[in-house]
Amino acid sequence: MIFCSLCTRDPPRMSLMPRSGPDSENRQEPPRAVQLSHDLRLWACERLVTGPNRRQAARNLIASASSHGIDLDMLWGVVGNLQDPKATKVRQVCLAVLGAGRTAMLFHSSPEHQRALGTRETQIQEISACISTCLEHLGQTPERVGLAQSLIEPRQRWARDACERAGMIFVGELAYMRKPIPSSGPATKPEPDWPEGITVRPVRSLERDASQSDRELLIEILEQSYIDTLDCPELCGMRSMEDVVDSHMATGVFNPAHWLLILRDGRPAGCCLLSHCPANHSVELVYLGIASNARGMGLGRRVLDYGISRLQGLDAREITCAVDTRNTPAIAVYESLGFQRFDSRIGYVAPIPLR
To answer: How far is CA 193 from CA 83, 197, 264, in A?
Structure first.
């Protein structure tokens, strides 16, 4: 799929449970969010963790943030009354986590049944203000971020409202699917007899200056596969193809032997990109796409099945993927190979700078 690649064993989850603070129900002005200073980090992070001991979990997040590529300077929040020792220091918060391919994943707090925080509507307004201010600041450094995104649980209607009010764009509901890998590894299969004119081969290199680089060929294949795509078509044209390739390569461990290119009569026809995610003991189907000149030949299923058979010797218990629920042909292919749906998210994005 075209969405920013990420290992999909567990879709991102962060939540907030604020506990105390003055009600600002009567405020006349729209809520104002600011970039949070270092002394407010503990309160902000406490809104972004779950568990019985949020204070300790927040400390753990702060301690481990840098090792996970999280910059806690990228926190924006609506601040409470800092002069009142009983007040909630940070009412709502949004964290931007920068990724490869000039992307940023947004995590934000949630409305809670806390009288001190006001009505649900007040809290949604404040969350939206956090997201909006975050997007504005990201827009000041477009060389670092070209696309911000948020993945929301389908039941969280309030989160969709907050994202839309902040100017983010709905790009589809994503079904997360997985297929178990036997402990003995995938069954080894010979290379299929491809239809006449079809060639399937691994990527040689994606380095820009390599003598046998397939980077430009892969970009052309991706562009061709996006034509009339059913997979998050709203994303088409929002990102540079260089950024797309970089984000795909950053998913798990890139191994060119597991990225297959499809050619028809020597012309770009599709690709199947698989990457090992050792931390999750899984393999992710980063992208499967077929160009219009090769659709209707059953290539998607055959190439994916062949690609899976090449995953020998990896510490992986399952293969995962994410697919737009509107892409029923792709879902049918995955189901025919033994994939089952296990979760879903609603995708929102914002091009940076905002258009």
So the answer is: 74, 11, 14
Look at the domain 34-173 and name its fold. Aminopeptidase (3.40.630)
Domain 177-346, CATH among 3.40.630.30, 3.90.79.10, 1.10.540.10, 3.40.50.1820: 3.40.630.30
**Mean pLDDT computed over 72-98:** 87
User: H helices then E strands: how many in the chain?
Assistant: 8, 12
> Which CA distances in Å does 45 have to 14, 49, 63, 89, 124?
10, 7, 11, 11, 19
Write out the H or E segment, with its range, that includes residue 120: helix 120-138
101 conformational bin, left if phi > 0, alpha if psi -120 to 50, beta if neither? left
pLDDT-derived band at 16, boundaries 50, 70, 90: very low
For CATH 3.40.630.30, the residue range(s) in the chain are 34-173, 177-346
Phi, psi of 232 (to 5 degrees): 50, 60
Whose CA is closest to 241, among 43, 2, 58? 2
| Span 184-199, average pLDDT | 89
Strand-by-strand arrangement of the 75-79 sheet = 34-35, 75-79, 90-99, 103-108, 147-152, 340-351, 169-180, 318-324, 282-290, 267-277, 259-264, 198-202
Phi, psi of 104 (to 5 degrees): -140, 130
